[in-house]
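Morning run. Coffee first, then this:
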Amino acid sequence: MRVKSRKWGYKVFITLFSFGILAFFLLPLLWLLTAPFDTKATLRVSLPSTFTLNNFRAIFANTFAVRALFVNSIFIAGGTMLGVALFATLAAYAISRLRLRGRDILAYLLVLFSSVVQGTAAMVPIFLLLYHLKLVDSHLGVIFVLVGGLLPTGIFLMRDFVESVPRSYEESALVSGARPSQVLRHVVIPVLRPGIMVLAVWAFVQAWGDFLISLIVIRSPAKMPAPIAIYSFYTEGGTPVLTLVSAYALIYALPVAGLYLFVNWRFGFRFFGGIKGSGR
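And here it is:
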């Protein structure tokens, strides 16, 4: 009886602990879904006292914030996504297929290097480099820095996808007379497409939430991305207007959520099972 009671108590503890962790992460989301529709939003999670859409009307009336979200942020995140997906795929394929000594050590060094490129200590040399390249106050400069910082980790992640592709696919294409470039375009890339999409979503999310690099590189208000433009909804004393901040944050989260749902619906986890099954 004591053993059963201990097991029952352990299960109750695990259940309560799980609900506590779930509530810890769920409460901010509930606030984000309710506060934008309230005329007098507070930091408490509650149903709107008076339902309204005026907060969103005020957001779209702010041309600075709208441009920052739907033009600047999308351009920066989209350019970073394309750059990381392209160069990480090519580099990961080369590292995986070429016989290089110490390539495993190289892969781990790339991950360590990525934490340095975007670190605060590297901002001064990066800014000087962009200054000499005349890329300060440009979206292209922000994209270059983000791609350089995300590329090492992207190569490391993409290498696992490339390693799961059976080499028999490529060997069969070469025997049939295909050139190496044709093998890459028509055999490897189609098989790696789900992995590339996963990497692209990861790079998009990382660039979408960037604040420090954009704050240092961008100088013109018209080129500011959304993470900086959200401060236009603060008072002169530095206090956030919760109704407008919550509404802008909700709109800001929709592109990332939509992109994730699209990739999950389009590819899901069929990639891993398909490769393992075909390699048997």
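The domain at 64-278 is CATH 1.10.3720.10 (MetI-like fold). Good start to the day.
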